[in-house]
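Quick illustration, no need to memorize.
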Amino acid sequence: MTDTTLVPNGWVCLYPQVSSVTEDSSVTEEDRSTSQTATMSLDNRGLAYADGFFTTMGVIDGLILWSDYHYQRLVSHAEALQLNINSEELLAVLQLYAQQLEQGMLKLVVTRAAQDVRGYGYTPNANGSDCEIWLKATAMRVSTALQLSLPDGNLVPTQPYASAICLASQIACLPPPLAGLKSLNRLDNVLASGELQRIKAEPLASKLASTLGEGLLRDMSGQWVEGTMSNVFYQLAEESLSESKTTSSIHKDDEDYLSTGQWYTPSMAQSGVAGVMRQVIIDALSTTQYPVIIRSLQDEDLPKLTHLFFCNALRGIMPMSSLTLLSGDVVDFKSV
């Protein structure tokens, strides 16, 4: 697998590695880095059939955030899609890129290698499990101004309050083992994101639309599952064990944000992406008084919501101050 001491611009092919230059000791590191950049074939199965997966990693101080969880994603996704990946070696290479990047984002894309098989089929043997591994390193600021201390002592970035809206777009219901995977087939999320951007760009957009941070999505069965780029957690008025305490502390004391009251998150068993930050939060609360409960979110639950936040591995926790329903009604969490 390709190793590097320089962070190249653009996409680089980590595997299969380009050997014609990297094996020549007379070339410079700049030439070596340039040689790793390759062009993806139009026969690539990720391009043709979305046959693969991806993961996006934040980097701060040269370290990959939640690296253990990204490692588990590599292992689980390789198993589910029957791809031959040395996850330990791959993570070690990613850590080298992170050290050089210092702060920013690493996006990893894994696709099944091109094969001489027509159509959707692939060779069900060792060769059929071969893959191509692509990486893009992007220098950018990863927000750390606001951080929330999880019950297990880890810190997670927290974004300012925004508003959310229920979108008409729906995401697909998928069979095992595809449900929950961060596969390359994200067309439903692409279309949903387009709907959200159109709402935000409307000429006569309301003040609420101008503060929109995320859209809530249903799957084809009608259950509300996730955001366009994130997972969702929520609390319900009728389930709150101490409603007045929850309402007052949830907005005034960030340290109690997750430890006060019962949080729920929808199941990823038939749709959605089981995100890294989602699992971080579930694990962090697993030994507290109120472990996260996996529970479907239905239409009749929405008016009963008292708190709602979205989350992903790059932006951390994104708390919402309100949710606009499909009917146009607004559930205001700060006034509950």
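The CA atoms of residues 98 and 329 lie 45 Å apart.
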